[in-house]
Specification:
By secondary structure, the chain is an alpha/beta fold. It has one domain: Alpha-Beta Barrel (TIM Barrel). 36% of the residues lie in helices and 14% in strands. The protein contains 13 helices and 10 strands. It has an 8-stranded parallel sheet with strand order 3-4-5-6-7-8-9-10, with helices on one face. The chain has a two-stranded antiparallel ribbon with strand order 1-2. Strand 5, helix 4 and strand 6 form a beta-alpha-beta unit. Helix 2 packs across helix 3 and helix 2 runs parallel beside helix 12. The longest helix has 15 residues. The two termini are 31 Å apart.
Length: 327
């Protein structure tokens, strides 16, 4: 395992880490025993960073992390998020009283006294521009309840705005072969300012595994079913903003990336790690097999300059015009 420093913080985190939305809920059937085995497998491989949120299974993923990391609190870093448990458009959701309550509940579920990275969870841009939530986070940081804080954003514009706050130490952004816009301006600016980047939705909700066909169906409680076209939350999140059948069509054109890299999953994650602005890529998982497949991305051949250019042109010519929503 290789480790990269999270911006200019004191955190060195595994370049391939894991998100825990899938084991919390909204990704179909899960098995807690298998989830715990998968978390153990990841840590055995050197993973020392996990991303979660208070709304993942109404706190269930936080509880699983507490169980898996018991006694390893000083070695395993946890990032969690807040605000989507309330009305994200209501200013009261970002008041000191509300944020403190969100944090205390997360700390209780995580069985920790401090969160390593506390993140605003895709709040509306007007909330970020108001700025008062950052003052609340500053206060909680001064009290020692959070080590560092960051923002999970939906758009490049939001990310650039957050970089203006010197206390924002990390941005979590959608970044994958289908979503390359952050490369142009956001990543260079973040690197210049010493802000870490966490790449979420790295496999475009599974499109970049190459396992889907146009007739693939998902369970009723899987967001890839109930948010396929943005019915429940931002349309840019599920399938990286692509209409499903279009995403499947585009993924078929990318099968070549798996050559010498075993499969598309490993290749897609390897492509993200080629970018030195990235601190860590955080794929999801539901079982040991998926953890091991993701970890194998660290061992596959890197992309050549020619291949990187080919994927850049593919995005510009065939993908970007089909992404829905602001990004």
């Amino acid at each position: 395992m290789n480790y990269r420093r999270l911006g200019n913080t004191d955190l060195n985190i595994s370049e391939l880490s894991f998100g825990t939305w899938a084991i919390g809920g909204s990704w179909g059937t899960t098995d807690d025993k298998e989830s715990l085995r998968a978390l153990d497998r990841a840590m055995d491989a050197g993973v020392n960073f996990f991303d979660t949120a208070d709304v993942y299974g109404d706190g269930h993923s936080e509880k699983l992390l507490a169980q898996a990391t018991k006694g390893k609190e000083d070695k395993i870093h946890i990032a969690t998020k807040f605000c989507r448990g309330g009305d994200i458009h209501d200013p009261k959701t970002y008041s000191e009283e509300s944020v403190r309550t969100y944090l205390e509940k997360s700390l209780s579920r995580l069985e920790r006294e401090r969160v390593d990275l506390y993140q605003i969870h895709c709040a509306p841009f007007e909330v970020l521009k108001n700025g008062s939530v950052f003052e609340v986070l500053d206060k909680l940081q001064q009290e020692g309840k959070i080590r560092h804080y960051g923002v999970s954003v939906e758009t490049v514009e939001e990310g650039l705005f957050c970089l203006e706050n010197p206390n924002v130490k990390a941005l979590q952004v959608i970044f994958n072969i289908f979503r390359q816009k952050p490369l142009d301006q956001l990543f260079p600016e973040a690197k210049e300012r010493g802000v870490g980047i966490l790449a979420r939705v790295p496999l475009a909700s599974g499109l970049l595994t190459g396992k889907f066909t146009s007739t693939t169906s998902f369970e009723s409680d899987d967001h890839r079913n109930f948010n396929r076209d943005g019915q429940a939350f931002n349309v840019g999140e599920t399938f990286a903003g692509l209409e499903f059948s279009k995403g499947v069509e585009l993924s078929e054109k990318l099968r070549w990336i798996a050559e010498d890299r075993k499969n598309m999953t490993r290749a897609a994650l390897r492509w993200i790690l080629e970018h030195d602005s990235i601190t860590s890529v955080i794929p999801g998982f539901k079982n040991v097999k998926q953890v091991e497949d993701n970890l194998a991305a660290l061992q596959v051949p890197p992309f050549s300059g020619k291949e990187m250019k080919q994927l850049e042109e593919f995005y510009k010519k065939e993908v970007q015009d089909h992404i829905r929503g602001a990004y």
